[in-house]
Amino acid sequence: MGRVPGRRLSEGSHLIGLISDTHGMLRAGVHQAFAGVELILHAGDVGGDEILDELELIAPVFAVYGNTDEVNDPRLSAAINRVIAGLSIHVSHGHEVGSPTPARLLERYPADVIVYGHTHQQLVTRADARLVVNPGAAGARRFKLSPSVGLLRIVEGRAEVELIALD
């Protein structure tokens, strides 16, 4: 399977794949869900380089380590901080704040968009102009929660998230 080139939705607009908690399993539906994204942000508990390699077939990947990943893995960071179209984006697994909640993450990180994992629970919360997102767990079904990923769209300086269920 060849790499699908990333694309912008239109000038000044961006489409970014959000994924977390793959735990060594990448569902085939991720390829379809992320078709056309310009980059992928993985919020930890990756479960091995083969997951990152497979995601790289879709778009460039930036990933953080979770509580089940090797901290010394050179492909994983403690956190990702990027600015895209004027919006600051922070990605971390969330376990670094104990039991992650939007309030705890908003207090700790000043970013416009905060992406995390760890809880396996899908969540999109807006606090004023800031956005907190957990795309859910994309790997094996756990805790009776449906696997999912997210699409972050940045259009004219505003971020919106769509959660996508995986089969």
What does this protein look like?
The chain has one domain (13-165): Purple Acid Phosphatase, chain A, domain 2. The chain is mostly beta strands. The model is unreliable at 1-9 (pLDDT under 50). The chain has helices spanning 29-33, 49-56, 102-108, and strands at 13-19, 39-42, 61-64, 76-77, 80-84, 87-91, 113-115, 123-127, 130-134, 148-155, 158-165. 12% of the residues lie in helices and 34% in strands. A six-stranded mixed beta sheet has the order 4-3-2-1-10-11, with helices on one face. It has a five-stranded mixed beta sheet with strand order 5-6-7-9-8, with helices on one face. It starts with 12 loop residues before the first strand and ends with a strand. The protein contains three helices and eleven strands; from the N terminus they run E-H-E-H-E-E-E-E-H-E-E-E-E-E.
Strand content: 25-35%
State the end-to-end CA separation: 20 Å
Query: How many structural domains can be distinguished in the coordinates?
Result: 1
CATH topology: Purple Acid Phosphatase, chain A, domain 2
Question: Any low-confidence stretches, pLDDT <50, length ≥5?
Answer: 1-9
Largest sheet: 6 strands, mixed
Gyration radius from CA atoms, angstroms = 14 Å
Report the strand count: 11
CATH architecture: 4-Layer Sandwich
Question: How does the overall form come out from the CA principal axes?
Answer: globular
Order of helices and strands: EHEHEEEEHEEEEE
- Strand line-up across the major sheet: 4-3-2-1-10-11
Residue-averaged pLDDT: 91
The first-level CATH class name: Alpha Beta
Helix content: 10-25%
Helical segment tally?
A: 3
- Class by alpha and beta content: mainly beta
CATH superfamily: Metallo-dependent phosphatases
